[in-house]
Amino acid sequence: MQDRPLPSEKPNTTMLPQDAVNKTDPADIARDILAQAFALGADVAGLAPVDALRLSPSERLFPQMIDHSRDHFAEQITTGLPHGSVFWEEDAKTVLIFGVAHPADQPSLDWWCGEIDPPGNKKMIRIGKALRAYILENYPDIHVYTKRYHVEKGGLYLKEAAVAAGLGCIGRNNLLVTPRFGPRVRLRAMTLSAALPAAGPADFDPCRDCPGYCRKACPQHSFDQVIYTPEMTGIRHLPGRDGSYFRKNCSMEMQKNEDEALTGLMPEVCDHPEKIIKYCRACELACPVGRGNTSDASTH
Ligand code: SF4
Ligand code: SF4
Fold first, then answer.
1. Angle at 50 (CA atoms; ends 195, 97), nearest 5 degrees
2. Greatest CA span in the chain, whole angstroms?
3. pLDDT bucket at 14, cuts 50 / 70 / 90
4. How far apart are alpha carbons 151 and 153 in whole angstroms?
5. Which residues of 158-180 are buried (b: 16+ CB within 10 A; e: fewer)?
6. How far apart are CA 231 and CA 97, in angstroms?
7. Given a cut of 60, is residue 3 above it in pLDDT?
8. Whose CA is nearest to atom 5 of ligand 2?
9. What is the pLDDT at residue 1?
10. What is the three-class DSSP state of 161?
């Protein structure tokens, strides 16, 4: 049992020196790895047991979905599994999930430059590579598997992993809502072969007493009618909580954003003009939770 809680947001502590870490104690290893994630620039990070995520609500719902849209990045399945199924490495025991804040005042973190990853994605890739190298160097017995973003290419359901890791809850906008940054975070994950202690879902629900600013902000009315019910699907945790999130409407807005994108320069990611795609974030930016909080690690 861990004697101190695991942080899910950047703690006010510096990393322990390596010789102060008991490398046979899973709780010590967990704290050290999470501290390293924060030191590398993550704004949220946590651990979740793989067993809690097998056949998650999203994976079970997938075969019943009437509104899934396969974007062109996810068209080609590389796992060899049915569409929507998660590939778990045989010895994977723990999901290490981390995220980077995407505050409203740094919108370009989220902008695509043609098909070039937005700066926020690049930052997460950098953190992921450095974190993997750190774990391999300091814990050579642990196998580390970097997970791709798309489930079809070996990824996992990031929001469900984040909830299981205590990072926040799924809001009525169908996004992960964290206490500090609200829904303005982007996530990445890797799996580890070591069984490490997890914080477990957090007792946090800002949506309970909220009039639903997120839903009112949607230009495509993506939450206007219930399309999935527990009775119909046999699943209690549904998109948008009450089964009202209609992904196809949202995809229409994404398509519109791509069609209307103007050509411009983003020198931080590309040295020639490209279409700068600014995907809709209305349901994310309208949420008052964590508004105004910026990353402590914006210099990374
Ligand atoms: S705007 Fe309100 S209902 Fe929507 S995600 Fe934020 S807290 Fe929840
Ligand atoms: S991203 Fe935009 S279109 Fe999609 S659900 Fe949110 S507000 Fe609606």
1. 90
2. 56
3. low
4. 5
5. bbbbbbbbbbbbbbbbbbbbbbb
6. 32
7. no
8. 250
9. 36
10. helix
Rounded CA-CA distance 169/289 in Å is: 12
Nearest CA to ligand 1 atom 8: 207
Ligand 1 atom showing the smallest separation from residue 207 Cα:
8
Tokens representing residue 194 in the block: 């070591």
To which residue do tokens 């009202």 refer?
244
Q: If DSSP codes are grouped into helix, strand and coil, which group holds residue 44?
A: strand
Domain parsing of the chain, residue ranges: 18-204
> Does residue 67 register a pLDDT over 80?
no
Q: Is residue 50 within 8 Å of residue 93, measured between CB atoms?
A: yes
Question: Residues with beta carbon inside 6 Å of ligand 2?
Answer: 217-220, 222, 250, 253, 280, 282-283
pLDDT in tens, 100-116: 999 999 999 999 999 89
The pTM score is 0.91
What is the number of the ligand closest to the CA of 176?
1
